[in-house]
Amino acid sequence: MTSLATWPMYVTPEPVREAGQIFIERVLAHLGIQQCEEAPADLMAQWSSPSLLLSQSCGYPVMTRLRDKVQIVATPCYELSGCEGAQHRSFIVIHADDERSTLEAFRGARVVINALDSNSGMNLLRVTVAPMAEKGRFFGEVKASGAHVTSLELLSRGETELTAIDCVTWGYLERYAPDTLARTRVLARTELTPALPIITAASRSLEEVQQMQHVLNEILQEQPALAETLAIRSFVPASLDDYRVILAQRDRAMAAGYPIIA
């Protein structure tokens, strides 16, 4: 079987992108793989490829659109604010000059999310807002930006009033590009959810999965500077069952009459 390996989820700031690329190269070297397929630009095409060896994905599409195509290898444990063990959360972020102090005060506001199938940008915000929604609505306007960093740019320019940002993204920006956050502030934190999973194709054997679990942690031990840049303490073995909380959060919002961000 040919192999496809990518590290597509955290690609800014530049030190993080470089570290992610080096990390995946080290994984391949440890596994004795000298050449991989060229990765499709489309993330869903990457993740659903039968030749997928290793990638990091958002947990929401894994539990909805990809459940029959992938298996979860491990969950990273990040050493960043908002993370607890193998779990992370989102920060609900507003403009630094906005004086409102509660989420309720943003009823009817303009919100931007990174994507409609994002756990950190959409699902966690949805379950947080659901108890306050009326007739399936809370916000006045909803837009999708395509990326957390773009959402923060729109917020900084005053083109939106609120967004939800993965705390790992926030932590990386705080470390390596603090100016990106200069005109924003955290209003609230969402509940926890498992961090973005490391996945492989459903057809990969148990032996392959176990080998990858070992290699992921071996590289962290061998490359402490790389581990520090990525802010990853360890990888813990995980499965689809560990991510069912994502569907439970979705279902709670739907039961409250708030099936979509609106």
Topology:
Elements: E1 4-5, H1 14-31, H2 43-48, E2 52-56, H3 59-64, E3 70-78, E4 87-88, E5 90-95, E6 110-113, H4 119-129, E7 141-144, H5 148-156, E8 162-166, H6 167-176, E9 184-189, E10 193-194, E11 198-201, H7 206-222, H8 224-230, E12 232-237, H9 244-255
Helix pairs in contact: 1-7, 1-8, 4-9
Describe this structure in words.
This protein has 262 residues and is an alpha/beta fold. It contains nine helices and twelve strands. It has helices at 14-31, 43-48, 59-64, 119-129, 148-156, 167-176, 206-222, 224-230, 244-255, and strands at residues 4-5, 52-56, 70-78, 87-88, 90-95, 110-113, 141-144, 162-166, 184-189, 193-194, 198-201, 232-237. A five-stranded mixed sheet has the order 1-2-11-3-12. It has a five-stranded mixed sheet with strand order 7-6-8-5-9. Strands 4-10 form a two-stranded antiparallel ribbon. Helix 1 (14-31) packs across helix 7 (206-222) and helix 4 runs parallel beside helix 9 (244-255). The radius of gyration is 18 Å and the shape is globular. It starts with a strand and ends in a 7-residue tail after the last helix. The mean pLDDT is 97.
How far do the termini sit from each other? 44 Å
Structure annotation, total helices: 9
Which overall shape is indicated by the principal axes computed on the Cα atoms? globular
Structural class: alpha/beta
What number is the mean pLDDT?
97
Radius of gyration: 18 Å
- In the predicted model, the low-confidence regions spanning at least 5 consecutive residues are none
**What kind of sheet is the major sheet?**
5 strands, mixed
